[in-house]
Design a protein that fits this description.
The structure holds two protein chains of two kinds. By secondary structure, chain A is an all-alpha fold. Chain A has twelve helices and no strands. The relative contact order of chain A is 0.15. Chain B is α+β, with helices and mostly antiparallel strands. Chain B is globular. Classes of the chains: A mainly alpha, B alpha+beta. Chains A and B meet through helix 6, helix 9 and helix 12 of A and strand 1, helix 4, helix 5 and helix 7 of B.
Chain lengths: 336, 399
């Protein structure tokens, strides 16, 4: 039996509507940060400091003409944006944000043993949808973008999966909620009785955080890993033929993916929405904002990588580092 | 679009975000590697040369300025030099220095623009915004002395149109000092930043011998180690009196292009400062009447525009209008070596290699008609042209 509070938490808070608006806020935050770093002002006019600009963009796109190319595979072409949007949204349901029944609890909308794997699966499914979106649009730039998306997966998926193993081993669970609980517990015990091993674990987890943020930067197709939609090279790549409602869904899906990435980072490495005094939702917003700031900062700092350079770089540095990190965690888990 | 097999073709242009002007390049690609390139220019032919034959020398002064948006002053200066040579006018020394000043400021603004565009092409928008903000300094100077940011209308036949007030000179000196400082910073960024080196080093290589064989010019050729610069080799205006270095790079790739252009920025700032310090006194122009006739004669001059060697030819039959005027913009000379640079590279490198020559296709587009089957292969009557057009579009010759 589904209760009203369940429906409310799925549809309104902390479910779909909250996540969509939070994604728009993150979009604004990222745009504004990048703009200020680039000596520009960014969105200014819609709402306070342009905060409503992403929302206005979505509304504008919804009103625009929706064109499907004649040569496109119509079913796939229409299904892909919906799939990308819903998959990203569904994954956020598995991440602890805030429980609506009690102020200081943060059980996710859906939580079960193995939901971490579901989140990773959803990441891969999004990549598959993106590939199909590019491929089905029957455009040469779309096809090149689609192949680049598939190639990029080879670079960042493996380090990403490896990095989730560490927290999972330590927590002894594949549930994100349990991992968060373990983090809170271990931080509390570390503060109560600091040990050298606890400190080392913290250092190893920090390295994991750093590599994970790079993998997620690639996952969310932010600069310097935006070669799949590189405007100057392949004219927005796999997105090139999308317009109107479909483009609005793609934009929203991308924003939600950024929220998902920062929420996953928060849950795996920063203790999720837990924190002293303030309710979980506030901590969630503070921590994910911090992650979005790091992501935007990195994306303003570098020139776009070339796809072959990125693959080589990922396999030369990211993967070995991720393996080492897992090995260090396994060694430490024997000590602690 | 043929997608069978591993090779397929990607059209870049006539409209493409990497090209600021219409030109078409058809790339044959195998995976991410470019196998062959088929260039086609001529999308923006405006008939300027023909239009010049119907206008007086003074009117043409403003038409030549509109050949190009960025090297407007270079084309205009060259035109004025040609007319003065045929008309036998020797311009006053102050005019020479003032022309040099604006010529160099234009080079600074063009090179800064190029650095920004190049950064944008490799997906480094942060550098793009920084450079373009600093470009405002030189645009402000230009606006202050001429009233315009890009089309300065600076030259008159026989000199320049305006003078620089002496009380403004310290202000310009200061602005140029800031610019010199910023340029040094960009030199550091461009040569040490790892992500730029990643994208630019070894990309779009052309050896020195190939560059000489394919007649490249300007910074594009100097990036391959070809040590030639019209300002030094064939001095015009005041360049024989001004000390400056010709910057070359040996690497022959996009990084070489960046190094040469950033180095030239430093030199140009130096030249501009030297001109302000050594500005001679005297009149700024010789008289040239609006309808004055120019004696019979021909003149060909070269100028080192920002993008390379710009060549203009003037033929006068003693009228107040030119009989024939011919221009060759530097981009045309750089296209053969560009094609060489593009082959064997990656799709991801196409925009930056294309942008590497600082292309300006609109200036390049001239029309030449050759039909070897006819007795007179160079001529075509308007009726023939009309028939040719009908044939072109109905028989699918344009495909």
């Amino acid at each position: 039996m589904v209760s009203i509070s369940d429906v409310f938490s799925i549809v309104v808070f902390p479910g779909a509507i909250f996540i969509v608006f939070y994604a728009l806020y993150c979009n604004w935050l990222s745009r504004k940060t990048v703009a200020r770093l680039q000596n520009r002002r960014g969105p200014m006019h819609t709402g306070y400091a342009g905060m409503l600009q992403p929302f206005a963009d979505i509304v504008k796109l919804l009103a625009k003409e929706d064109i499907t190319p004649g040569a496109a595979n119509k079913t796939l072409f229409s299904a892909a944006p919906v799939a990308i949007f819903t998959l990203a949204l569904a994954a956020v349901f598995l991440i602890p944000i805030q429980s609506i029944t009690s102020l200081y609890s943060y059980t996710p909308i859906a939580s079960f043993e193995g939901d971490l794997i579901i989140v990773l699966l959803i990441f891969s499914l999004i990549v598959l949808s993106v590939f199909l979106a590019g491929w089905s649009s029957a455009n040469i730039f779309g096809a090149v973008g689609a192949t680049r998306v598939a190639l990029m997966t080879l670079a960042y998926e493996i380090p990403l999966v490896l990095l989730t193993i560490g927290p999972a081993i330590m927590a002894g669970s594949l549930s994100i909620n349990n991992i968060v609980a373990w983090e809170v517990g271990s931080v509390q015990s570390f503060i109560a009785a600091p040990t050298i091993w606890g400190l080392m674990l913290g250092v190893v987890m920090f390295i994991g955080f750093a590599i994970c943020i790079l993998s997620l930067l690639a996952e969310t197709e932010m600069r310097p890993f935006d070669m799949a939609e590189a405007e100057t090279e392949i004219v927005h790549g796999w997105q090139v033929e999308f317009s109107g409602k479909k483009l609005a869904l793609l934009t929203l899906g991308r924003d939600i993916k950024i929220v998902l990435a920062s929420a996953l980072l928060t849950s795996l490495f920063l203790g999720g929405p837990a924190g002293p005094i303030l309710p979980p939702i506030v901590w969630f917003i503070l921590k994910t904002t911090f992650c979005v700031l790091i992501l935007s900062n990195l994306s303003a700092l570098f020139a776009r990588f070339r796809i072959d350079v990125m693959l080589r770089w990922a396999w030369q540095y990211l993967v070995p580092l991720a393996v080492l990190q897992v090995m260090a965690i396994v060694a430490l888990s024997g000590v602690i | 679009m043929d997608m069978s097999g591993t090779e397929f073709s990607i059209p870049i242009g006539p409209q493409h975000p990497a090209l600021k002007e219409p030109a078409s390049f058809l790339f044959k690609v195998d995976g991410e590697v470019v196998v062959d390139v088929e260039p086609r220019v001529g999308y923006n032919h405006r008939g300027i040369e023909k239009a010049m034959e119907a206008r007086t020398y003074i009117q043409n002064l403003y038409l030549t300025e509109r050949v190009c948006g960025i090297c407007s002053n270079a084309h205009q200066t060259l035109y004025a030099m040609n007319v003065e040579e045929v008309a036998g006018i020797i311009i006053p020394p102050r005019a020479k220095y003032l022309r040099t000043f604006v010529h160099e400021l234009e080079r600074i603004h063009s090179h800064l623009l190029w650095v920004g565009v190049a950064a944008h092409e490799i997906g480094f928008d942060t550098l793009f915004y920084y450079v373009w903000r600093d470009r405002e300094i030189v645009l402000d100077i230009l606006e202050e002395i001429s009233g315009n940011r890009v089309n300065y209308a600076w030259n008159a036949i026989g000199g320049v149109r305006r003078d620089i007030p002496s009380d403004k000179i310290p202000k310009f000196q200061k602005a140029l000092d800031i610019l010199a400082e910023r340029t040094k910073y960009y030199t550091k960024v461009a040569t040490t930043e790892a992500t730029i080196a990643n994208r630019a080093s070894g990309v779009g290589y052309c050896s020195k011998s190939d560059m000489i064989r394919l007649c490249g010019c300007g910074p594009h050729a100097r990036a391959s180690g070809v040590n030639k610069d019209t300002r030094r080799d064939n001095p015009y205006l005041a360049y024989d009196e001004i000390p400056f270095n010709v910057i070359t790079a040996e690497s022959g790739d996009v990084l070489g292009n960046v190094v040469v252009r950033v180095g030239e920025l430093v030199e140009s700032v130096g030249i501009a400062k030297y001109v302000l310090d050594h500005l001679p006194d005297g009149p700024i122009r010789e008289k040239f009447n609006p309808l004055q006739k120019v004696p019979e004669g021909e003149a060909t001059n070269m100028i080192e525009a920002q993008r390379g060697e710009d060549i203009h030819y003037l033929c006068s039959k003693g009228d107040n209008k030119p009989y024939r005027y011919k221009m060759r913009a530097p981009t045309l000379a750089n296209i053969p070596s560009l094609i060489l640079k593009l082959k064997g590279g990656y799709i991801a490198d196409i925009p930056i290699v294309l942008a590497g020559i600082d292309p300006c296709f609109s200036c390049t587009d001239r029309m030449v008609f050759v039909d070897e089957s006819k007795d007179n292969p160079w001529d075509m009557t308007s009726e023939e042209l009309r028939k040719y057009g009908i044939r072109w579009y109905s028989n699918g010759l344009n495909k």
